[in-house]
């Protein structure tokens, strides 16, 4: 579903040039939950941003299904991001003057949904992450873990093919971090959404199907695909699982 071929990125020029990615080949299958680990500065965020079409590569190709992201212009790329991808960041990136529900609805309205339909979907997504009672709260009225769940609701509300998460638990304590990753794991199983997580935390990586290990702009190890712990049980209902946490 996502394929990188000889993907390279150099920041700056001449003496100041930094080779952040060096001819990386990579494949991520539909429905996989993958982590990317490696020392600080090895190129994890750069890789994520190129795969997601946020930044431009210096060389190589990125295929998103049958779409060549390396050939799309900025407008086409932002359309793909808006319609097919969800994003979660360490610092949540919520709009402070909007409520949880408004934050979740915002990208849906940008996609052209009516306000009413966007609100309906936002409430549904907040329910999926166990936050239906907090829909009218502002980010400053919520805990870090709750804000990250709002960000997850925003990422899943548009039913994306893939969610990109850059250090999603970096600002959270270990219990909250576990809950957030558990939630992503459930969404991955329940909705079959592909999830790619950059993390420093081995406990986060343990929850994923495989871990890609990077070093100095290269992939050292693509990771073995771990056997999943049994199929998801849709009948159990995701909302019930989450709200019982
Ligand atoms: N905008 C930029 N301009 C110049 N150099 C950059 C830029 N962004 C990243 N780099 C450099 O590219 C290399 C890879 O950076 P990247 O952020 O991808 O690493 P990372 O593995 O995500 O690091 P961390 O774990 O610390 O977040 C680093 O040497 C970094 O200093």
Automatic annotation (TrEMBL):
<keyword id="KW-0067">ATP-binding</keyword>
<dbReference type="InterPro" id="IPR015854">
    <property type="entry name" value="ABC_transpr_LolD-like"/>
</dbReference>
<feature type="region of interest" description="Disordered">
    <location>
        <begin position="222"/>
        <end position="245"/>
    </location>
</feature>
<dbReference type="InterPro" id="IPR017911">
    <property type="entry name" value="MacB-like_ATP-bd"/>
</dbReference>
<keyword id="KW-0813">Transport</keyword>
<dbReference type="Pfam" id="PF00005">
    <property type="entry name" value="ABC_tran"/>
</dbReference>
<dbReference type="InterPro" id="IPR003593">
    <property type="entry name" value="AAA+_ATPase"/>
</dbReference>
<feature type="domain" description="ABC transporter">
    <location>
        <begin position="2"/>
        <end position="241"/>
    </location>
</feature>
<dbReference type="GO" id="GO:0005524">
    <property type="term" value="F:ATP binding"/>
</dbReference>
<protein>
    <submittedName>
        <fullName>ABC transporter ATP-binding protein</fullName>
    </submittedName>
</protein>
<keyword id="KW-0547">Nucleotide-binding</keyword>
<dbReference type="InterPro" id="IPR027417">
    <property type="entry name" value="P-loop_NTPase"/>
</dbReference>
<dbReference type="InterPro" id="IPR003439">
    <property type="entry name" value="ABC_transporter-like_ATP-bd"/>
</dbReference>
């Amino acid at each position: 579903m996502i394929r990188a071929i000889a993907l390279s990125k150099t920041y700056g020029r001449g003496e100041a040039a930094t080779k952040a990615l060096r001819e990386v080949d990579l494949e991520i299958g539909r429905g996989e939950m993958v982590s990317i680990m490696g020392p600080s500065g090895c190129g994890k965020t750069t890789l994520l941003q190129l795969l997601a079409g946020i930044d431009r590569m210096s060389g190589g190709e990125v295929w998103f299904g049958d779409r060549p992201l390396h050939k799309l212009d900025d407008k086409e790329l932002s359309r793909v991001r808006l319609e097919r991808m969800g994003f979660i960041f360490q610092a949540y990136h919520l709009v402070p003057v909007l409520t949880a529900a408004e934050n979740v609805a915002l990208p849906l309205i940008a996609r052209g949904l009516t306000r009413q339909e966007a609100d309906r979907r936002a409430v549904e997504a907040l329910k999926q992450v166990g936050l239906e009672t907090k829909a009218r709260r502002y980010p400053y009225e919520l805990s870090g873990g709750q804000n990250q769940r709002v960000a997850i609701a925003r990422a899943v509300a548009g039913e994306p093919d893939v969610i990109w998460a850059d250090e999603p638990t970096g600002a959270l304590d270990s219990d909250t971090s576990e809950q957030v990753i558990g939630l992503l794991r459930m969404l991955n199983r329940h909705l079959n959404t592909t999830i790619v997580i950059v993390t420093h935390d081995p406990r986060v990586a343990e929850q994923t199907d495989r871990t890609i290990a990077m070093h100095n702009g290269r992939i050292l190890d693509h990771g073995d695909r771990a056997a999943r712990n049994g199929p998801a049980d849709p009948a159990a209902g995701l909302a019930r699982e989450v709200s019982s946490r």
